[in-house]
Design brief:
Elements lengths: L1 H6 L14 H35 L4 H24 L1 H10 L1 H34 L8 H28 L12 H5 L4 H25 L5 H4 L5 H29 L7 H26 L9 H50 L1 H5 L9 H10 L15 H8 L3 H9 L20 H12 L3
Helix pairs in contact: 2-3, 2-4, 2-6, 2-8, 2-12, 3-5, 4-5, 5-6, 6-8, 8-10, 10-11, 11-12, 14-17, 16-17
Length: 442
């Protein structure tokens, strides 16, 4: 704790009450984030699969048709991802204000760039969707549109992950010099890879259900591809992507700094893995078994993977809470001290604002100086502007000249910043008292 305190910034927090009990706000954060991230997965995975099918469709026409069918879902999932993202964003702002906004400011331009990037990517998906017929004879151009959207969709989560990762490491804030610097922190890229393959797994499971619906007019859309073929490929994608997640997962854990580790985290992660194993077995059995058994265990698979997602989402919160707990305790202690000092200052405003007796014999002038000038000037040491003793040497016996300079200063020293003009900010009485205080300082 002492080492942490000596190496990290410890600002006081804003002592404002949460709008709802913290436990409820944490629940809102976890649940809303999980719903949001599923639709983000479907948006990204759907875009990537659309691009792949469209490229494959240059030679096999039916895959272009499949690309069109997947593309129809992207804009819907995109809209749901945006709407469902409001609650977790507001929740994390309320729960981790200090950490979230510090990370935002340190990643700077890239964090702000999310807004125009999202806007462009969304417009490209609509352009791609509604120009399918118009650009039917120019498939390379049409595929380029979704390719650019995919590239942007791949970059936006990297910005989010980098930002969220950065908020967990207050001890690193002093060394971060922007987005590229934050990318070098541990765990960013392993988590990013885990997210990418989660997108493929979620999209494969969604596509298996979407194509398999009884009211889906498959036979009127596809002539060569069969429903079984597409669903089997979708299931295979789920199995392959989940298998890679099983390999990437341990790397994610190993690259997580130990400060956030705990038995509670390991128990939750292990539970998520255990629940996912039977789902993988059922999928494998389905794609290697007879055709009529392909969808037999679908809802069991979906339920198991849903629980896995819940465990992983809760594990993410546990690690965040474990990581930030020591720092939050120190900030809370400083906030308490700050609050007490503020209350004391409000109870004794005159005593706190009284001038230092060593500066001069005129209390009111000293008070005006301390309130308006002390940030840049001291008695005998140059701070930003010249010290008081230098002012005395220049304006001794010229109170009117000093008052005129304070009201509308010029610039005499090339190496020093321009002094701001006080103009009418000081009353004539305050200006007189301030000038007398300066000129009577010894």
């Amino acid at each position: 704790m002492l080492l942490l305190q000596s190496t990290v910034p410890l600002p006081h927090d804003i002592p404002l009450p949460l709008p709802i009990p913290e436990t409820l706000l944490v629940a809102v954060l976890i649940v809303s984030f999980l719903i949001h991230i599923v639709f983000v997965n479907l948006m990204l995975g759907g875009s990537l699969l659309t691009f792949w099918c469209q490229i494959k469709g240059l030679k096999e026409k039916e895959y272009d048709t499949l690309a069109h069918e997947i593309a129809k879902t992207i804009t819907v999932n995109k809209s749901l991802a945006v709407v469902m993202g409001v609650a977790p964003l507001l929740s994390i702002n309320a729960l981790y204000t200090l950490y979230f906004y510090t990370a935002n400011s340190l990643t700077g331009l890239m964090w702000i760039a999310i807004i125009p990037l999202v806007t462009v990517a969304f417009l490209l998906t609509y352009l791609h969707k509604y120009t399918w017929t118009v650009l039917a004879n120019n498939k390379p151009l049409h595929a380029t549109i979704i390719a650019i959207a995919c590239a942007i969709f791949l970059f936006i989560p990297l910005i989010f992950l980098t930002n969220i990762n950065l908020m967990l490491f207050p001890e690193k804030w002093g060394s971060i010099k922007g987005f590229m610097s934050a990318l070098t922190l541990p765990n960013v890229f392993p988590r990013y890879l885990h997210f990418i393959f989660a997108s493929f797994a979620a999209t494969g499971l969604f596509l298996f259900w979407y194509i398999g619906r009884k009211n889906y007019p498959f036979e009127t859309i596809f002539k060569k591809l069969t429903r079984y073929e597409i669903r089997k490929k979708a299931y295979s994608l789920v199995l392959a992507a989940s298998g890679i997640q099983f390999l990437v997962g341990p790397i994610v854990l190993l690259t997580l700094p130990s400060k956030g580790m705990g038995w509670n985290l390991m128990l939750v992660i292990f539970s998520g893995v255990v629940v996912a194993i039977p789902a993988m077995y059922w999928i494998y059995k389905a794609i290697t078994g007879p055709k009529h058994r392909l969808a037999n265990d679908f809802w069991k698979v979906a339920l198991c993977l849903t629980f896995t997602i819940i465990f992983m989402g809760y594990g993410r919160h546990i690690y965040r809470a474990n990581s930030l707990d020591p720092h939050r305790k120190m900030v809370a202690k400083k906030t308490l001290a700050f609050t007490k000092a503020s209350e004391e200052a409000r109870k004794n405003p005159v005593e706190d604002l009284e001038a230092d007796a060593s500066l001069a014999e005129l209390p009111k002038g000293a008070l005006v100086f301390k309130q308006n000038c002390a940030a840049c000037h001291s008695k005998d040491v140059k701070v930003v502007g010249p010290p008081i003793i230098e002012m005395v040497s220049i304006y001794k016996g010229d109170e009117l000249g000093l008052k005129s300079w304070i009201k509308s200063p010029g610039k005499k020293r090339p190496a020093a910043p321009q002094m701001p003009a006080f103009g009418d900010k000081l009353s004539e009485d305050d200006l007189t008292e301030l000038s007398r205080f300066i000129l009577n300082t010894k």
